[in-house]
Amino acid sequence: MKNNNFQAVKRILVIDDEKNMRHMLGVMLEKNGYQVTSASDGLQAIDLVRKETYDFVLCDVRMPEIDGLQFLVQAKNSLGSSTVIMMSAYGTVEMALEAMKAGAYDFISKPFKVDEVLLTLKKAEEREQLKAENRELKKIIKEKQEGTGFEPIVGESAEIKKTIQQAQKIAQYDASVLITGESGTGKELVAKGIHKSSSRGNMVFYAVNCGSIPGELLESELFGYVKGAFTGADRNKKGILELADGSTLFLDEIGELPLDMQVKLLRVLQEKEIHPLGAALPKKINVRILAATSRTLEEEVALGNFRQDLFYRLNVLTLHLPPLRERTDDIPHLCSHFLRKYNKKFGTSVQYPKGDVIKKMVAYHWPGNVRELENRVQRGVVFANGDDFAMESLQHGFFQEGNGSGIIIPYGELSLKKAQKILEKKIIDRALKKTGGNKSRAAHILEISYPSLLNKIKEYGI
Ligand SMILES: Nc1ncnc2c1ncn2[C@@H]1O[C@H](COP(=O)(O)OP(=O)(O)OP(=O)(O)O)[C@@H](O)[C@H]1O
I need a surface site. Which of 284, 299, 396, 447 has the fewest CB within 10 A? Predict the structure, then answer.
């Protein structure tokens, strides 16, 4: 584990095979306020930079075992933002220049004066400070130009504001996220926001719906394959996990992922590596997984459809998107937003729906959530009469539940048992609709136990 703690004192690693040189540099640098660590060869230095973070590395060019250039190449991934300065003796300047091409900041020629070393370090420090300021300014400009990534999410309700606040926090941690919520509540929109406002925000956002790819294609789509892996594999193909290397992958409907794929995904999360079909060796990748589900994964775990270990892995940072019926304050804002969107798209100027329609919309249970609202507004614009919103697009289906009980007992049925079953089936149906398929909440509304609801669902084939 790297120690990346903030340090006010600058840390420096001196790599030189000459003991006297290490000693002289150590004394001189410590006297000037640096915290010095020494390594007598490149291999030992690689080990050190893997474990610790250094602000500067002063590295001799010519050394036994591996030379300074080889050290630079082999330690590249571990050096991070360390500034490397090469020390070259007579005859190794060429190599020092090569090292600069490979990423070293500067070189100083041996023998050098103490001031020369200090001046080079000072220059490098100033450059680092300028770079950091530049990064900060770029970030501010980017945020000003593009916003934080959550602007497309419309809503003024306390619920959605809280969700966005949580999402903004979550975005800063480079960990997997599980986003739950009924279909159409905006899980993908929030995932995009998390990606955009994260450190990976400049990269392309990748998304896959696990339920929409046939099982037999899923593995090659996600993990890729090498030429000859199976009949028809006439070239290497990168999977989406590899394409998303360095970026974010949104896995929608993760609950639909077949069990064998769940094992493979767990490996991605644990080992940070993928194994393309037919490949001899695994490949290291660095992808941030944002998974979403409209199912209750705890239930899927209990039913044996979802691996518990994968669930725990994903369930570290979670975000729940409340259904639209639980944040009805958003309805008028969303309605205006979609009206503007489709007026712009179709070049129309359809007016906001008149009358007490908003009241009715607020009372409706919105099983398809924001997506349903968007579709209804779009239809209202398309079928508008002049500038008058087509009201039937909003009203259709709104009052279905109010038209009588909707429960039909066959004429002449005298068995109380059978009538009770019909009634039970209908009420369970209704409760499941009301909770968007969430069985534990449905059981609560129905005032029966969860296992009893599962039994009835099975019995009635719901
Ligand atoms: N708060 C919101 N503001 C604006 N548009 C929204 C909002 N929430 C959802 N939408 C829109 O509604 C549609 C559905 O959203 P999205 O695809 O993000 O939902 P989802 O929860 O991922 O759905 P599913 O589970 O079915 O994939 C999209 O067109 C999205 O842009």
Answer: 447
Q: Where are the beta strands (DSSP E) in 56-162?
A: 56-60, 83-88, 106-109
- Please tell me if the CB atom of residue 252 comes closer than 6 angstroms to any atom of ligand 1: yes
Give the Cα separation of 360 and 372 in Å (integer).
15
Q: How far, in Å, is the centroid of ligand 1 from the Cα of 186?
A: 3
User: Is the confidence at residue 1, as pLDDT, over 50?
Assistant: no
Instruction: Output the six-digit token pair for 419.
Output: 């009538």
Q: Which of 153, 439, 174, 175 is nearest to 321 (CA)?
A: 153
Give the chain's domains with CATH numbers: 11-134 (3.40.50.2300), 158-322 (3.40.50.300), 325-402 (1.10.8.60), 416-460 (1.10.10)
Ligand 1 pocket mutation, candidates 333, 342, 371, criterion most atoms within 8 A of CB: 371
Q: Is pLDDT above 90 for 316?
A: no
- Report whether pLDDT(3) > 60: no
Per-residue pLDDT tens over the stretch 258-309: 999 999 999 999 999 999 999 889 999 999 999 999 988 988 898 899 999 9
pLDDT at 136: 78
Does the pTM exceed 0.90? no
Report whether residue 193 contacts ligand 1, using a CB cutoff of 6 Å: no
Which of 180, 188, 366 for mutating ligand 1's site (highest number of atoms within 8 Å of CB)? 188
Pocket test for ligand 1, best of 159, 180, 189 (most atoms within 8 A of CB): 189
Task: State in Å: Cα 206 to ligand 1 middle.
Answer: 16
H/E stretch holding 292 reads strand 288-293
Dihedrals φ, ψ of 208, to 5°? -135, 135
Query: ipTM beyond 0.90?
Result: yes
- Which comes out higher in pLDDT, residue 186 or 77? 186
Has residue 402 got a pLDDT over 90? no
Measured from the CB, is residue 374 less than 6 Å from ligand 1? yes
Find the mean pLDDT for residues 235-243. Answer: 91
Question: Residue 457: is it exposed, middle or buried by C-beta count within 10 angstroms (0-12/13-18/19+)?
Answer: middle
